[in-house]
Specification:
Length: 215
């Protein structure tokens, strides 16, 4: 069960006037759900950033509304300023704790490949995978041990760890981690191949004109 919490206050200001909220360090948010009517709220920008940093991008958040009870929510949409990256608006989805939710969860690597040598590097193909789980079972991240990662054996979605209550929705054969040659190593191989080709003695065949002269 997530222990992430966030406090919100009712918001009367809407439209373009919400700019004044942002100047006060507040973020306009909306909460909605299947059985939850849309509610306009505001939250502290720093508190929101902290919550998201600790897993709130995918994990359940306990949203306490001043004078209005508590809701279990998931982040559905985040809008940020293209230049300052400051929050512009956030949508929260009020969930039913007994209903499966589909979310994307970040994937992180643990360990170091035993097959990693000079000229090879670890490539992470997927930063996140889609899962289905009850709200309380959604993890902050999915840790993957890449110790046995090999050039001939990439780690795919099917190889991800089995977690209680978690169903992976991404394609099973989609690669998550793989070992690949670095660009420098590829260029070195190309140079070596070119040198070998140049070093091979040229074989000159006898032409028809030469044969005719001998006759």
């Amino acid at each position: 069960m997530s222990e992430l919490t966030l406090t919100a206050q009712p918001r009367a200001i809407t439209g373009r006037k919400v700019r004044q909220l942002r100047r006060q360090g507040l973020v306009p948010v909306v909460v909605y759900g299947k059985t939850q009517a849309s509610v306009n709220l505001q939250v502290n920008a720093r508190a929101l950033e902290t919550t998201l940093h600790h897993g709130g991008y995918s994990q359940l958040v306990e949203l306490t509304i001043d004078g209005g009870g508590m809701l279990n929510v998931l982040v559905r949409d985040i809008q940020r300023h293209p230049v300052t990256n400051a929050f512009v608006h956030v949508d929260f989805y009020a969930v039913n704790m007994a209903e499966q939710q589909e979310v994307s969860v970040q994937v992180v690597s643990v360990g170091r490949p035993s097959a990693l040598i000079t000229g090879l590097m670890v490539l992470q193909q997927l930063d996140a995978v889609a899962i289905s789980a009850l709200p309380a079972d959604i993890p902050a991240v999915i840790e993957v041990d890449i110790t046995n990662l090999d050039v001939e054996a990439p780690i795919s979605v099917a190889d991800l760890p089995a977690l209680p209550g978690i169903e992976y929705l991404s394609e099973p054969d989609e690669a998550v981690f793989m070992l690949i040659a670095t660009r420098a190593a590829e260029e070195e191989e190309e140079e070596e191949a070119a040198e070998e080709e140049m070093a091979e003695p040229e074989v000159v065949g006898r032409g028809k004109a030469d044969e005719e002269e001998e006759e």
